[in-house]
Fold this protein.
Amino acid sequence: MNDTTLSPSLRARFDLMQTIVAEAADLAMRMRPPAGGPIATQKGAQDWLTEADGAVEALIAARIAAHFPEDGFQGEETGRTRHGALRWVVDPIDGTSNFARGRARWCVSLGLIADGVAVAGMLAAPALGETFLALRGHGATLNGRKIAAATLDDPARAMVEIGWGPKVATRDYLAVSDRVMALGAAPRCGGSGALALADVACGRVDAYIELSINLWDVAAALAILSESGAAVSPFLRDGGMERAIPILAAAPGVASALSAASGIRLGDDAKAA
């Protein structure tokens, strides 16, 4: 696919993406629990599910099927329900643990993948009043303004978010955290992998590391990162289309140091998604 030429079919899908995610974000806000809780059930240890997860995913799936029934679809809650040359991937509520307690750091995430490449992505974080959007070859934006990864080149001055998940052994998480902090970097953990990756894309943090993350958590963010100039591990190429694997996204100037500290290799071009 030519990065600079926007085909009518991709334009139609990109336009639909924006309409669908805006509608889904409105629905999620209406269903957002009050502070307290959590108002949710557990799928596993610290793996939460709310009524909104299912409702938002169902809305997105239905809208896409109505307009592009030939496209593939994969959701966090329902799995891969359709196959096609293009694959839409949705995380209806990324940061469900935050959402379930009435916190603001969560988003609706929708990505579009073609031929193993993330070609478009949108993250709507309505409680924060923020929308990230990207189309391959056409830039990435936050609330309509172009974004770019940070220019920092000293890991001792870096802010690094390190995602945690119950499927990762505590010793492995702590080992990576120790190595990152040994560089002098300041660690963070905000509870939404998608928004953490978007923060790398807009320069709010200098890197995001997670040792096991799924496609639906990153599908939208991969397009945003690629268009922002961030360095990204080859997530799709290394098997992320089918299973949970590690990811590293970083400002280019600190990417090599954080790759060594995390043990997550970067792509040959240091920007491959």
Observations:
- The first helix runs from residue 8 to 31.
- Residues 155-262 form a domain with the D-Maltodextrin-Binding Protein; domain 2 fold (CATH 3.40.190.80).
- The chain has eight helices and 15 strands.
